[in-house]
């Protein structure tokens, strides 16, 4: 595994829509593993492929220590309710902002082995997953935030 460089806000790469992954093969698995390692190194709770300069529809997330998800070609199939909270992004270091997100979601996608999976997420998990899905559309939380402020702690996505 290897650490990848994180693309920062201002780079046009973060503003493009990502293309689907054709096949979950060893190369894709290697990139997912690198993404998990990079996310952990920078104390993030999520990392999307465009954040390492790869314009493919996939992301990793670890909303709680030890609970890791890899999603390839994810789709949001259900959205319920709303919640408002503060979040950060590894591509926007040193800042957080308040964002409105769904309270509960259902998401479908391929896992690291290429098998179709469907999960339901609530609360903070739903925040993390929708934040990462936005990255695949070229959307940053700063587009949706009502206030952005400087911080020094971890928990970025
Ligand atoms: Ni992010």
What general form does the structure show?
A: globular
Class, according to the CATH hierarchy? Alpha Beta
Number of helices: 2
**Strand tally:** 8
Per CATH, the architecture is Alpha-Beta Complex
Average pLDDT, all residues: 96
Structural class call reads alpha+beta
The stretches of 5 or more residues where confidence is low (pLDDT under 50) are none
Question: How far apart, in Å, are the first and last alpha carbons?
Answer: 20 Å
- H/E element string? HEEEEEEEHE
Helix content: 10-25%
- Strands across the major sheet, in which order? 1-2-3-6-7
- Bound compounds, please? nickel (II) ion
Q: Into which percentage range does the β-strand content fall? A: 25-35%
What's the story with the biggest beta sheet? 5 strands, antiparallel
CATH homologous superfamily, by name?
A: Peptide deformylase
Which assembly state applies to the chains in this document?
single chain
Radius of gyration: 14 Å
The CATH topology label is Peptide Deformylase
Number of domains: 1
